Each structure stands twice: as C-alpha cells, then as structure tokens.
Design the sequence.
C-alpha cells in the first residue's frame, strides 16, 4: 500500500519530518513512484565505441545492462534472465556478442532477443521464444553525451524532463564544440546514508562548504590559512527548478578552473562567446548541481556521479571524470587527477561530505531522533527572477533548491505512477 507523505512536509514554512530518510516502507514506495517513473542517468556515450560494448548499472535497485547493438543503437535492458531471474551479465563493463545466462544457458543478443534456449525441444509447442527477450526500458535518450533512460512510457521527452536546468548543465556539457567524454574508470563506493542526503546537498547546500570543508580549503589555500572570509562572503546564486533539479554556484567576474594546467588551456574569451558572460561567471564556477532524482555534477572538478539507493540507510556512489574532447591528453589527465584529489573516493572534499551523511543517518535510528522536524528555512521568501540567470534563483546560501527537490519528491510519492494503472502482467 502507498502512504500519503503530505504529513511529513510543511514546505511553505521550510519544515520536513526526518522520517522520509529512514522509513523502510517509504523507501519501497520511493522505488515505485520516484525511481521507476523518472528519467535516470545510466552512463556516458563515450563508454560505447563499437557494437557489443556494454556497461552494467542500476535504475533504482533494478540492475540494467546498457549496450550498443549491431545497428550502433544504444539500448538498456533489465539485467535479469526471463527464465529464473538470474543476472545475465555479471561483468561491470566489456564487449560481447551475446549475454549468456550462467544458470541454464539462455542467451540473448545485444538487441535483447532470446537467441538460444538449451534443450529447446523439451519446451511445449506453445512456448514462443520471441516473446521471452530481455525487458527493455520504455525510453532511452541522450543529452550532450549523457545517457538517460526511464521505465515510464508516459514520461515526457528527456529534454523536457531536464527543464530549465539544461541551461545550467550546459556550463559543463557544452564548453567544447567537440562535446565531452569520460576518462579513467568508474569509481564506486558505499556510504551509510540515505541517497537523498547527497542528492539534496548537491542541488542546494553551499552552507556547509566553509565549515565542513574548512581544513580542505586551508590545504588548498596558497597562504595555508584558507580563504575562509572570502568563501563566507562569496556572492552567488542558487537555481531551483520546478522539476526538482537544482544548481548552486558562486559568481566571479573572472571565472577560472582551479587546476593550473586546465586553467591555462581554456580560452575564456571563446567560452564567453559560446556560453555567454552570465554562464561563464556563474554556473561554470565551482558550483554543483543535481538532476532529479539522483544524478549530480561538479562542472569545474569534472565529476559526474549517481547516488544509487541501496535501502533507506545506504547508498552506492558511482563517479566518473568528465573532460572536454578537444583537450590534449595531458590536460585531460590534469583534470582527472584534480577531480580525484578533490572529489574522488578519497578526495579531500568528498571525505568530508561522506562523513556528514553517514553521521546524519546514524543518528536517525532512534524513535525520537528519527522523526524530529528538520529545518529547511534558509533563504525562504528570497527567491526571485534576477534577470541574469534563467528561472527562479535565490541566494547562494539557501535551502531553496532542497525545498524544490522535496516538493517534487513529495508530489511523485503522492501520485500513482503509470504502472499502477495497468495489470501486473504488463509491468516490467
Ligand atoms: Fe537464466 Fe535459467 S535463470 S537460464
């Protein structure tokens, strides 16, 4: 049964009941009503160079295979054999002609078709092999190199689902006429925290930077004292999208990449011509954003990541390094190393964040502590159209995008998804 989650929110007053982060029943509802109907990030196009290349990942907790077919089309399938549900692909990535189940040997080609059934003569005459292919996502599309998919046949096209965030996202994806690619592997690590803590923070939370990352900022400061005062007083904006996305960014008249090699490579006049002054001086700075529900990014660090839900108390972080295709190899490598130094699994900023989320989750297990009211009031009433940045923006130090994120989450949780209107037999 689904629960009305309205009672957990008073977002006009910036109040949220902590129950939404730890309740097992709400978590199951979240998989059905937030993850299943939404567009979810799968991979980057550059991970698939030739037919047969594949990558395995998750949509919510559903395991999926993303693969390029012989027609060079990208497809995504549930990574579950139609016979007994075994994972048909147990590798993280690779190249193959077929996915052969290691349990009884059913085999599927890269278009998902069931092409081999051992002992087929023992199946009855009415067994229709063509009907037992892998279950395919309802829609798959790409946005400037990023591959997304959804189980929801009624979801709007991807570009509509990204809404106004696309203008902000392009500060990372559209700097280079050649586009982007990912370099190095995919880093994966487990954190003992609810996935929303991370997604919300990347959409909205600049408040923590000066405190949680104080020691990291000191290490990175040329004087060793850290740019504490400047950070506290940093001007900036926070974009809140009605679809639940968010992006916060400081504004600097002179935008710059922190890594010296990367900084020296960029032609800032060309970037201004391509993206416009507002975008170069704003979202292309050291900000971060979230595409609702669980894809986040840091334009300057070159990190893109997914917060995979693994139960109410646990998430798995999967992170890639994104670079511009035109960069010479040494610049790509400098960007990769800078990203790992800051936001890799042992990155100096990443470790601070993980510690916060795990600690927050650990204190939510009590009866009283698990259902207390949390404060999301920062910046309430201060959001506006500033005439420079599209859509609604507020102060950099605000909970505005977090309130937008949870407004969307609440609405999806309280809306029957497409699969609740069809028979169980028809659902994926
Ligand atoms: Fe895959 Fe039996 S579970 S062949």
Sequence:
């Amino acid at each position: 049964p689904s629960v009305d989650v309205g009672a957990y929110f008073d977002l006009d007053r910036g109040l949220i009941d902590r129950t939404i982060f730890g309740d097992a029943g709400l978590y199951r509802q979240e998989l059905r009503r937030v993850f299943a109907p939404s567009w979810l990030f799968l991979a980057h196009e550059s991970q698939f160079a030739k037919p047969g290349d594949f990558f395995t990942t998750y949509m919510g907790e559903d395991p999926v295979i993303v693969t390029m077919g012989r027609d060079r089309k990208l497809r995504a399938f549930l990574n579950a054999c139609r016979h007994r549900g075994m994972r048909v692909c147990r590798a993280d990535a690779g190249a193959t002609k077929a996915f052969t189940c290691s349990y009884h040997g059913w085999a599927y080609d890269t278009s998902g078709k069931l092409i081999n059934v051992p002992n087929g003569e023992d199946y009855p005459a009415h067994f229709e092999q063509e009907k037992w292919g892998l279950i395919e996502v309802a829609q798959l599309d790409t946005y400037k190199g990023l591959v997304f998919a959804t189980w929801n046949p009624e979801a709007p096209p991807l570009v509509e689902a990204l809404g106004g965030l696309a203008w902000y996202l392009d500060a990372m994806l559209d700097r280079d006429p050649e586009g982007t690619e990912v370099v190095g592997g995919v880093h994966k690590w487990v954190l003992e925290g609810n996935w929303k803590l991370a997604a919300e923070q990347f959409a909205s939370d600049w408040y923590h930077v000066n405190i949680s990352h104080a020691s990291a900022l000191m290490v990175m400061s040329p004087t060793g004292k850290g740019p504490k005062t400047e950070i506290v007083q940093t001007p900036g904006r926070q974009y809140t999208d009605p679809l639940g996305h968010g992006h916060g960014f400081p504004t600097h008249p002179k935008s710059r990449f922190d890594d010296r090699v990367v900084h020296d490579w960029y032609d800032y006049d060309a970037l201004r011509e391509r993206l416009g002054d507002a975008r170069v001086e704003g979202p292309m700075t050291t900000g971060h954003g979230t595409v609702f529900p669980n894809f986040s990014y840091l334009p300057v660090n070159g990190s893109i990541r997914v917060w995979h839900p693994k139960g109410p108390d646990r998430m798995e972080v999967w992170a890639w390094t994104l670079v511009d295709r035109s960069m010479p190899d040494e610049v790509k490598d400098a960007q990769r190393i800078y990203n790992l130094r800051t936001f890799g699994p042992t990155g100096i900023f990443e470790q601070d964040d993980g510690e916060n989320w795990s600690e927050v989750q650990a204190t939510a297990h009590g009866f009283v502590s698990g259902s207390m009211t949390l404060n999301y009031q920062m910046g309430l009433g201060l959001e506006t159209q500033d005439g420079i940045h599209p859509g609604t923006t507020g102060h950099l130090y605000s909970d505005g995008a977090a309130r937008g994120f949870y407004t969307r989450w609440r609405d999806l949780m309280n809306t029957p998804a497409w699969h609740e209107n069809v028979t169980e037999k028809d659902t994926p």
About this structure: The first helix runs from residue 24 to 35. The first strand starts at residue 9 and ends at 10. The chain has a mean pLDDT of 94.
